[in-house]
Design a protein that fits this description.
about 15% strand; TGT; metal-binding; glycosyltransferase; 8-stranded parallel beta sheet; 15 strands; tRNA_ribo_trans-like; tRNA processing; alpha/beta
Length: about 400
């Protein structure tokens, strides 16, 4: 058994003259900056110049239907003309998945690239060194980029404008100024200001604060853009969820600023009925001399319902994703699930014209069942052709006052 240690070993050593008490250290912790007022108003319209179409970008109205708010127009951009109403395919990483975008410039007059993903890789510096997105991806046709905010707030679960790269964990800060700087480096024809994306289920007061925040961010983005335009147009993003008062406030404020066009963003309703009701309210409140864009929605039924309400362009990965997952959009057979065995002996093309006229459904079924990579390519190509032809028919119907 080990010997016991003296109790004095564990007691403080007393001295006859206690040491003086140490001087208190000054508190060097800085006071945190005051939290910004969530109800602070954005700068007034008088802080910006009045709108004049720049020489490198303008909207040309060709015809407005006598039956609805549908209209046919053209966007004139530095890299070509975009006919509206038009479908905009999403090339997330400056590439359409499974297909080469170069032969599709005539059908996809405008494509959408994602700032968030391109900031993470290869980065704005690399794209700028390549001469911008058009040179980097070898596209001599118009491009639009978003602000990156949608992915930050959705992928980062609403954590704010500070996020970590999903590639290597690098901590990154997205502000109105850094978003615009990245889009300047990318050199897209149309860029978008930073905004906040609130969820559908949100209290009215929180939604109000979010709209004001988006307005402040969009005003900062616009000022940064106007200081160095670089032959780029900027679209505002109108917010307010399905609250008509907030949507009206957003449309009125942003419509008074010198934006080149207007996106309809934020929560757009829980179903198509709410979407169409929202568009009926919002579209008449946007400046009629400038183009508009419905952000993130471009399925067939939504396009058919939104064009008569005055929407010019639509973006979505809907048709290309369907193709990669084995679904064809056809006029002849409706939606075709190519994996189904009923197409095994159908030696006819999906449609009478356009698309995959040179390939039968039986052949496409065979490619899919044998896991040939070309199956995804051919189905994606067909769906792009389908969307292009559908938009062309809609433009002609508007010209004929049939829509």
């Amino acid at each position: 058994m080990p010997p016991r240690l003296p109790a004095a070993r564990f007691l403080p050593q007393l001295t006859t003259s206690p040491s003086p008490s140490p001087k208190p250290r000054p508190n060097r912790r800085r006071k945190p900056p005051p939290f910004p007022d969530p109800y602070a108003l954005p700068p007034p319209p008088s802080a910006f110049p009045s709108y004049e179409p720049p020489p490198f970008f303008r909207y040309e109205l060709i015809h407005r239907s006598t039956r609805s708010r549908a209209r046919v127009g053209r966007l004139h951009t530095p890299h070509g003309v975009v006919d509206t109403p038009g479908f905009v395919a999403v090339a997330t990483n400056a590439a359409l998945k499974a297909v080469d975008h170069r032969p599709l410039a005539a059908e996809l007059q405008l494509i959408f690239c994602n700032t968030y993903h391109l900031m993470l890789h290869p980065g704005p510096e690399v794209v700028a060194k390549a001469g911008g997105l058009h040179s980097f991806m070898n596209r001599d046709a118009p491009i639009i980029t978003d602000s990156g905010g949608f992915q930050v707030f959705s992928l980062a679960h609403g954590s704010g404008a500070t996020f970590r790269s999903y590639r290597d964990g690098t901590r990154m800060l997205l502000t109105p100024e850094t978003s615009v700087a990245a889009q300047k480096a990318f050199g897209a024809d149309i860029i978008v200001p930073l905004d906040e994306l609130p969820p559908y289920h949100i209290e009215r007061d929180a939604l109000h604060r979010s709209v004001l925040l988006s307005h402040r961010w969009e005003a900062r983005s616009l000022q940064t853009h106007l200081d160095d335009r670089r032959k780029q147009a900027m679209y505002a993003v109108v917010h307010g969820g399905i609250d008509e008062d907030l949507r009206a406030m957003s449309a009125e404020y942003l419509g008074s600023l010198p934006f080149d066009g207007y996106g309809i963003g934020g929560s757009l309703g829980k179903n198509r009925d709410e979407l169409f009701e929202l568009l009926r309210f919002v579209m008449p409140r946007l400046p009629p001399d400038r183009p508009n864009h419905l952000l993130g929605i471009a399925d067939v039924d939504s396009i058919v319902g939104a064009v008569p309400l005055g929407v010019d362009t639509f973006d979505s990965c809907f048709p290309t994703r369907l193709g990669r997952h084995g679904t064809l959009l056809t006029r002849r057979f409706g939606r075709v699930q190519i994996r189904q065995s009923k197409w095994k002996s159908t030696f006819e093309p999906p449609d009478w014209e356009g698309g995959l006229r040179g390939h039968s459904l039986a052949y496409l079924h065979h490619l899919w069942k044998t896991h040939e990579p070309m199956a995804a390519t051919l189905l994606t190509l067909h769906n792009i052709h389908y969307m292009s032809e559908m938009m062309g028919r809609m433009r002609q119907a508007i010209l004929n006052d049939e829509i």
